Amino acid sequence: MSDKTAITPATHTTPPAKFSHGVRKGNILQVAGQVGFKPAVEGEAPTPVGPTLREQTLQTFANVKAILEEGGASWDDVMMMRVYLTDVAHFAEMNEIYNAYFEAEGLKEAPAARTTVYVGLPPGLLIEIDALAVLG
Amino acid sequence: MSDKTAITPATHTTPPAKFSHGVRKGNILQVAGQVGFKPAVEGEAPTPVGPTLREQTLQTFANVKAILEEGGASWDDVMMMRVYLTDVAHFAEMNEIYNAYFEAEGLKEAPAARTTVYVGLPPGLLIEIDALAVLG
Amino acid sequence: MSDKTAITPATHTTPPAKFSHGVRKGNILQVAGQVGFKPAVEGEAPTPVGPTLREQTLQTFANVKAILEEGGASWDDVMMMRVYLTDVAHFAEMNEIYNAYFEAEGLKEAPAARTTVYVGLPPGLLIEIDALAVLG
User: Using one digit for the tens of pLDDT, what is the confidence trace for C80-113?
Assistant: First the structure.
């Protein structure tokens, strides 16, 4: 019997409903869909870090990473990343940002699998990412 | 070697292709995408419980829960819920229904992670949800 | 401690960014989103096998299967398939192709769970599929 633990980094905005930014149970860690919201400020509504794909993608990576670390994991443990974009025209730029980010992170092991699809997101948001990690 | 077992509650409509409403193998239980179809009636095509988001969301939760229970799990075991809506304008109402439902269910442990995106669904359907659970 | 291993069949086109077509860690194997690209030809850009849903669906299945096999798994180990279509009108035909394919594959055990949603995909692509497998 392993405990299920909610992962809620202090920097993260309060979820808009009763779910967790991340959950860990045994060696499985699931990161909820993250967007480019900047760190939470008490009394302020969640706000995207900026209007551009670059700003939002980098902030989204930071938000995913914070949840992984709070749950005792790292990028190396990630098995799957789901990338939701709003515009097919953003694919090439997202890949450039993605590659530069993970190179800078010094990711040594085999990268995760990934699926990218194009969906609707709330107004002002250009990217959402969730992730499944297996630890140990 | 653990057996993979299909989970097919008697109340559920027959899937439109050779897949299962749920599958369990070892301590992992995957719930297929559920929609607001009312319990199956022999000889009748699958029919949504009603046209409103509230009706369909509550029936979808009931359909997910039946699969969890048939597979020996409960909401407490759910790690991730993927919510597919057709309209960004439905987000706030879905969250209200979601919160009230899980409060009524008396969910005690840390809630699951969640991702919500906006996609196309077959005509008449406003919401689809799938879930990943880890037991034990 | 189990190693995370990237799965990259020789027949597959190079991913458009630093991710893997599949990843295995312990008994979990994640297949990245596959589309109907024909086997890689050095110096040529990834090309869909044909314009029709049938051609692309069968090639996508072949691409998923190659990753499963390279990772030591088979269709019997698949827990979940996520099917992304671009057009609700393709659902019935995809199900026919899906059923005929898995009948021909001689799938004996309980089939996987499945979620199908309708999203945007890059121009020329009609279907994308990813899969989660649990081995052993």
Answer: 999 999 999 999 999 999 999 999 999 877 789 9
Domain boundaries, chain A: 4-134
Q: Does B21 touch chain C (CB under 8 A)?
A: yes
Ramachandran class of A80: left when φ > 0, alpha when ψ lies in -120 to 50, beta otherwise: beta
Q: Judge whether C86 and C126 are in contact, CB under 8 Å.
A: yes
- Strand pairing of A113-118 and A78-85? parallel
Average pLDDT in chain A: 95
Instruction: Look at residue B104 and give its three-state secondary structure.
Output: helix
**Interface residue B130 vs chain C (CB under 8 A):** yes
Distance in angstroms (rounded) separating the CA atoms of residues C89 and C48? 20
- Predicted confidence at residue C47, as pLDDT, reads 95
Cα separation of the two ends of chain A? 17
Fold of A4-134: 60s Ribosomal Protein L30; Chain: A; (3.30.1330)
Shortest CA gap C41–chain B (Å): 34
**Summary mean pLDDT of chain C:** 95
Of C126, B83, C81, residue with least CA distance to A130:
B83
Would you say the ipTM is above 0.90? yes
